[in-house]
C-alpha cells in the first residue's frame, strides 16, 4: 500500500556506502552482506548510523543495476574496505511510503511513478528507497515501511 505521496525538498546528507554495478538477479545476494559491512564500519568509526539503511539507484537496465547501499552518517566516513563516503543530494523529490513486503516494491514503484506523472511532474533517472522498518522490526511484512524518493526535474 502506497501512503502519502507528496513533493518535498531534501537536505544534503553525508552517507557511508558500498557501490555496485551487477546483474539485476544478484541484488538480493549482495544487499545483506553490504549492509552488515557498512554498519560495522560506521560503528567502528563512531558515526552512527544517523538514519535508516537505503539503496540509491543510478542505472536500472533490465539486466544490470548500478546502485549503492548505505546509511546516513553525521559526517564523512573514512574509506575502509569497500565502504566509501557518498551523499544523498539536496534536491526536490516526490516521496511516498510503501507498507508491505519487499516483493511488492516493484508494483508500488509503478503506482508511485503513475502518481508523479499524473501530477504533471517529471522525474530524473535516479531514485532511492530508505528501509524505515523491515524484517528487523518484526515478522509481519504488512508493517514494513519503505520510503520512496524520486528526484524531480525542474
Architecture overview:
This is Bacterial transcription activator, effector binding domain. InterPro entries: AraC_E-bd (IPR010499), GyrI-like (IPR029442), Reg_factor_effector_dom_sf (IPR011256). Pfam families: GyrI-like (PF06445). It comes from Engelhardtia mirabilis. This protein has a single domain, classed as Multidrug-efflux Transporter 1 Regulator Bmrr, Chain A (Alpha-Beta Barrel). The chain contains 2 helices and 8 strands. It has 154 residues and is an alpha+beta fold. The model has no long low-confidence stretch (mean pLDDT 95). The longest helix has 18 residues. A hairpin with a 3-residue loop joins strand 3 and strand 4. An 8-stranded antiparallel β-sheet has the order 1-6-8-7-3-4-2-5. The chain starts with a strand and ends with a strand.
List the keywords.
GyrI-like; alpha+beta; Multidrug-efflux Transporter 1 Regulator Bmrr, Chain A; 154 residues; eight-stranded antiparallel beta sheet
The overall strand count is 8
CATH H-level superfamily title? Regulatory factor, effector binding domain
Most strands sheet = 8 strands, antiparallel
What CATH first level would be assigned? Alpha Beta
Helical proportion, percent range: 10-25%
Mean pLDDT: 95
Element string (H = helix, E = strand): EEHEEEEHEE
Question: Beta-strand percentage?
Answer: 35-45%
For the largest beta sheet, what order do the strands appear in spatially? 1-6-8-7-3-4-2-5
Tally of contiguous helical segments: 2
CATH fold assignment:
Multidrug-efflux Transporter 1 Regulator Bmrr, Chain A
Number of structural units classed as domains: 1
- Outline the low-pLDDT stretches: none
Identify the overall geometry: globular
